[in-house]
Amino acid sequence: MRQFTSAFGAALIGACALTTAGMAEDAPVKLRLSHNLPTNNALHYGVLEPWAKSIGEASNGSIGVDIFPAQQLGPAKDHYNMARDGIVDIAFYLVGIEPGRFPIVSAAEVPFLVSANDRGSRALYEWYQPYAATEMPDVKVCAMFYDGGGTIHAKKKIERPADLAGLKIRSPNVMAAELYRLGGASPIQMSANDAAEAVERGVVDAISFPWKLVQALGADRVLNYHMDTTLYSLATAILINKSSYERLSDAQKAVIDSHCNADWSQKLPVAWTEYEYEGRGVLLEKAGHDVYAISDEQLQEWKELAKGVQAKWAADVAAKGVDGEKTFGELKALLEKYDAAY
C-alpha cells in the first residue's frame, strides 16, 4: 500500500502534536463501523482495518473503531440509513446501490470514466464535497473512493455492444444497467451474492463483477469468458453519524477530520484494487477460461454507448434542477487534473 504524501504526513504529525495533551484526558470512545464484505476481502483487511488502526494510534488509543463485516448489522443497501439513524457510528456505503436516491453522485459511476482508482478517488472526493451537504445532508461524508473496478464475465465472448443483444446480465448499478440496456441486453440489478446464485441457476447469462469477486463467489464455474478491460468502477463512501461525531472531544474530532479528506480517499482503494486485479492473473492461467482483449475499434463502440448513459444521467438530474453538463464537466476536469480519466 502506498505511503502517505509528505504533506498529509506533516499535517497528521502536526495534528497529533497539538492534541496529545487533550487525548490523555479524553474519555475513551468506541465507534462501530459496518460494511458488507467478508473479512477475507481486501476492503476489510487492506482498507478499513488500516484506517481504523490509524485513528486509534493518532488518538493515543482514545478512539476505538470496532468493525462489523459481512452485513452483520444490516444489508448493504441500508448502510446510509444506518449511519444517519445512529444504528452504526460509521458505515461503508455503495453510493449507487439505491437507484435514484442520490442522483448527483451517480455521475461518478458512468462507464469508461476512471482509469486510475487511487487518483480518481481523490478527484471523486474533491468533486463531491460541494454537493454532499445538500445530497447527503444527514451524515458526515468522510471519504470517498472507487472499488477495484469491474468487467463483463459471460457464458459467451462479448466483444462489442451488439453482442449484448438478448442477454440477461447482472448489473452492479444504474449506470452499468443503462449501458447494457442501450446495447440490447436485459439488465438485472441484484446483490453480488444473489448474482452468483442466479448464474448457477441460469437466471442470467452474464454478470458485471470485479476479477477476484467472480472467483470468490464461484461464478467462474459457469462463466468462462472475461472481457479484459475495466468497464466501470463503483463509487463508495465512508459515512459518519453526525451525533457520533459531535459527542467527541475537540481533540478527537481533529483526529477524525485528519482521516476524512482527499489524501485518505486516494490512499484507501489501493489495496482493494490490487486485490481484485490479482484475480485477473488467476483466470489468465486457469484452464477453460478466455481472458480476451478488445480492439481499439471495439473499445470506441463501448465509449460511444457510454455517452448515451451520460446523456440520460444529465437529463435525469436536469429534471431535478441540476446543470448536468456543468456538474459532469467538473468531475471530468478533476479526473484529468489528476491523470485519472479513462
Automatic annotation (TrEMBL):
PROSITE patterns: PROKAR_LIPOPROTEIN. SUPFAM superfamilies: Periplasmic binding protein-like II. Keywords: Signal. Residues 1-24 form the signal peptide. The keyword Signal applies. GO terms for biological process: transmembrane transport. The keyword Signal applies. This is TRAP dicarboxylate transporter subunit DctP.
